[in-house]
Amino acid sequence: MAGHYPFVHVDDVPPLDMDPRQGWSISDFRVIMDGRNGCSSTIFRGLFMPGAIHKKHRHDNCDEMYYVVRGHGLAGAGPDRVELFAGHYHYVPRGVEHWLINLSKTEPIEVYGIYDRAPSVEATGYVYTGDVTEADIRSPRTPSRERRHYVVHDDLVPIYKTSREKGWTQDYFNQPISRIHGATTTWMQGYFGPGTVHQKHAHENCEEVCYILKGHGLAGVGKHRVELHAGHFHYIRPGEEHWLVNLSKTDVLVAPGWYIGAGDLDETGYRHFGPVTAEDLGERTG
Ligand SMILES: [Fe+2]
Fold it and tell me: What's the domain range around 35?
């Protein structure tokens, strides 16, 4: 797993054997990246088949954020009960009790998430706090009234103003979770129309993990040139030059990710180096 430019496909990672007596009744839980890759944080994928559940627990050492790729679930966070669908982000700060259950009888829920600056599941300070009861499942749905956790849907996230002069040629960029929610890591997303590019740049102040939700891209990271598809995650060290190109002539590339330890793009120490060249586009290293 070691290597200074880790890129990983979720399908190539083995599921972990999590303990159901500790509340992990998730059908398939995978750690995609963590301290073993040199990453400060743990990036995971959870797949919940009908009836699957992650019972009540909290993480005393880290914030958690997750995104619903598909499915329909019920989440608890503190006293709140929130239904989640594809496109929802859930930000759960450290110490807040939470849980997630699949409400569908036929479809799975799939989530991607991060244990922010916990380099392993063990390091999150996991505390199992009990079963989700029938009363929990039936209780009225409430918004995130505690304002200690946030549920944000993709559709409602405003576009973040980026500068074409500084290399942002993708159609748009936004930040579903950022310091406006009290987070100290940003969950961002780039939407790349056919042929668009985020030019060569670096973030001096933060690590970045970027993944492909949809589409087919070419990433440059340092000297590496790698084609990425949906389900690929890659890791970029602070200060390391990187760029991303949508290789498709017809389809959009959706590339979300995290600025780990920066609460907004303006905290990342963004530096623009210049355009991606025809030579860059012709190279492949892995
Ligand atoms: Fe970046």
Answer: 7-154
3-state secondary structure of 36: helix
pLDDT at 3 over 70: no
Distance in Å, CA 196 to ligand 1 centroid? 15
Q: How far is the CA of 203 from the centre of ligand 1 (A)?
A: 6
Same domain, 269 and 187: yes
Paired tokens of 127: 């505390």
CA of 3 to the centre of ligand 1 (A): 20
Q: Tell me, yes or no, whether 173 and 243 share the same domain.
A: yes
pLDDT in tens, 36-52: 999 999 999 999 999 99
pTM of the model: 0.96
**Rounded distance between C-alpha atoms, residue 160 and residue 97, angstroms:** 31
Q: What is the CATH number of the domain that holds 278?
A: 2.60.120.10
**Whole-angstrom Cα distance, residue 65 to residue 92?**
6
Ligand 1 mean position, distance from CA 190 (Å): 10
User: How far, in Å, is the centroid of ligand 1 from the Cα of 120?
Assistant: 24
Within-domain flag for 233: yes
Find the 9 Cα to ligand 1 centroid distance in Å.
19
